[in-house]
Amino acid sequence: MKAKQTVLITGATGGIGYALAEIFARNGYNLALTGRKPEKLTSIKERWERQYNIDIKYCLKDLAISSTPDEIYQALRAEMIEVDILVNNAGFGLLGKFSQLGLADQLEMLQVNVTALTHLTRLFLPDMILRKRGKILNVASTAAFLPGPGMAVYYASKAYVLSFSAALSNELRSNGITVTALCPGPTNTGFQARAGMAQSNLLKRISVMSPEEVAAIGYRGLLKGKPVVITGHLNVLSAFSTRFISRRWLMNLVEKLHSTK
């Protein structure tokens, strides 16, 4: 009997991460989950291990702390858990002008969105290369396709994720490993509340997808080994329009959409 594969998912207690975790669980994958909500992680383990007949390990960790990726890697290694699929989902955004948002908050965003993602990838990738198999899913955003006045650091962080993922996909094409950047548009998660976007024009004018829809699209794209997956026809159109429309005009539009006036 073939051993079940294990998927490590960061930020798995809500939103897209939770939806992805449930899809993998339904399809018989063992899970290694990280998050900051102990009650939610405990509940997931208790319910899904029985329901889906899988093994679930979880790490109560905050990726805003620089030592966390090493701690996650060492914890799984100590239990001899091989990660076959890495899902770098954890991330957050902040609405506001760069000069007005707190420096510590923005550096924390970069730590979670960029540094921890890079760190985890570098830790788990050599093992995948040795086994000559593995998959990586990095959750980016349609924000990756252009600068975002009003959320400058967030947009820049997702541009990094997209560029980094595309480069790795090319580097690893002969190693039996695929890297996929998932680029959702606005999604109905707790992201907007944490980012302070609940009253922004963006959410008033643009329809949002459910995390379940986004996760299903991302899951299918990952299994197919697609380098980039953009969720929804309108988001695809929006992303590719950046090639043909004036960047200054697009940035002005983005700034207006981020406004709460």
Concise synopsis of the structure shown:
The chain is of the alpha/beta class and 261 residues long. It is 51% helix and 13% strand. It is built from ten helices and seven strands.
Your description of this structure?
The structure is a single chain. The protein has helices at 15-26, 38-52, 68-78, 103-131, 152-171, 191-195, 201-205, 211-224, 233-241, 247-258; strands at 6-9, 30-35, 56-60, 85-88, 134-139, 177-183, 228-230. With 261 residues, it is of the alpha/beta class. A seven-stranded parallel beta sheet has the order 3-2-1-4-5-6-7, sandwiched between helices. Helix 1 (15-26) crosses helix 8 (211-224) and helix 4 (103-131) runs parallel beside helix 5 (152-171). The longest helix is centred in the middle third of the chain and has 29 residues, at 103-131. It starts with 5 loop residues before the first strand and ends with a helix.
| SS summary, helix count | 10
How is the largest sheet built, in terms of strand order?
3-2-1-4-5-6-7
Shape summary:
globular
Helix content: 40-55%
Give the distance, in angstroms, between the N- and C-terminal Cα atoms: 60 Å
Low-confidence segments, given as residue ranges, are none
Main β-sheet description:
7 strands, parallel
CATH topology: Rossmann fold
Number of strands: 7
CATH architecture: 3-Layer(aba) Sandwich
**How many domain units?**
1
Mean pLDDT: 90
Global Rg: 18 Å
